[in-house]
Design brief:
Layout (H helix, E strand, L loop, with lengths): L4 H42 L7 H34 L12 H29 L8
Helix pairs in contact: 1-2, 1-3, 2-3
């Protein structure tokens, strides 16, 4: 049976949503790491992260961390929702290969939770350590 025109129009939207749910945390984690490295390197090399400016630098790095964490948790929620809908056999979740939406939803949920922990782990030094502290 051929899919109806309305379900065929929904498939690109469904596919992009599933890909966001699967890869959103990884992309947010990558941008978080890159932005924090660039920002903290710039802040330390220009003296912006001196004792009088540490709260401002920490606020910006904290905001970057919170935005990345929010994107990752939103992707995890979308992934969880897609996994539940596809597990229930909802007709909207059907793709070309059976089980793809369910598999990608579960993989996305697990991956996004791991990337959320990674973002939290990378954001801890902003709170606990000095911005320009060197390790031994």
């Amino acid at each position: 049976m051929a899919p109806s025109s309305s379900s065929a129009q929904r498939l690109p939207h469904l596919a992009s949503r599933i890909w966001f749910a699967t890869c959103g945390g990884a992309v947010a984690w990558g941008f978080h790491g890159a932005l924090c490295a660039v920002f903290s390197t710039h802040a330390c090399s220009t003296g912006y992260a001196g004792p009088q400016n540490v709260p401002g630098s920490r606020v910006w790095l904290g905001l970057i961390t919170l935005v990345a964490l929010a994107v990752t948790l939103f992707a995890a929620w979308v992934s969880w929702r897609d996994w539940r809908v596809s597990s229930a056999g909802h007709p909207e979740s059907r793709m070309d290969v059976p089980g793809v939406a369910q598999y990608m939803g579960l993989v996305g949920l697990i991956a996004n939770l791991i990337f959320a922990l990674g973002i939290l782990w990378a954001g801890l030094p902003v709170i606990l350590l000095g911005l320009c502290a060197r390790t031994r």
